[in-house]
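Our preliminary data section would be incomplete without showing what the modeling component actually yields. Below, a chain of 127 amino acids is followed by its predicted structure, encoded as tokens that our downstream tools consume directly.
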Amino acid sequence: MRRWAIFGLIGPFVGFLVFVGLGGGFQSHAVQSSLIVLPFAMVAGIVPAMVTATFDRLLERRGVQQLGRLVTIALVGYGAAYLLMLENLFETTPLISFEYRWGLIGAVPAVICSWLNKPSIYSTQPE
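Predicted structure:
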């Protein structure tokens, strides 16, 4: 249960921070802009976060080591970030232009959440 909370709450927020960083940050009115955009980022980021959480759980159950799991989850998060951009394939003039760096919006939070979710040496019961 902890995995879903970490990916669902921390993942979209970290994705929002990566989005702001890739976009050059807010030039002015940073607080107001953040308060307006953050709820949309949380709603838009929940589906990719749950997809990566599912793959993280599957990899953990298969016994994949931590480094291999982080790399695989980064790739899954990178691909999951483009789930919301699938609509651009069918538009004549895309709302958001395709750039490879936008995949980092999903990859960076996926790795951070997976790393936060690593099993503790003190835990005695599975998740």
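The chain has a mean pLDDT of 84. Residues 2-116 form one domain. Preliminary results of this kind motivate Aim 1 of the renewal.
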